[in-house]
Amino acid sequence: MNWSVYIILCSDDTLYTGITVDIARRINQHASGLGAKYFRNRSPKELAYLETGHDRSSATKREMAIKKLSKTEKNAIIINYKNTSPS
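Above: the chain's sequence. Below: its structure in token form.
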């Protein structure tokens, strides 16, 4: 199965990192309050980063590595992603 690692910019300007096999479904779950508890008091603003091509194990490892980064380091990943992704 093709797992993805993602970062969502939230309504309070925080960053949420997660993994999924269906990014559209997962964002809809977060927006409707059926996703992570993190979204109970905030809503997803935009998908800021998406990394595909993982199996569950590598996606989980990558998610944990990203979660350990500072916000500045996460923002650098996001900026690089936006600058290199085809529009």
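The two ends are 26 Å apart (CA to CA).
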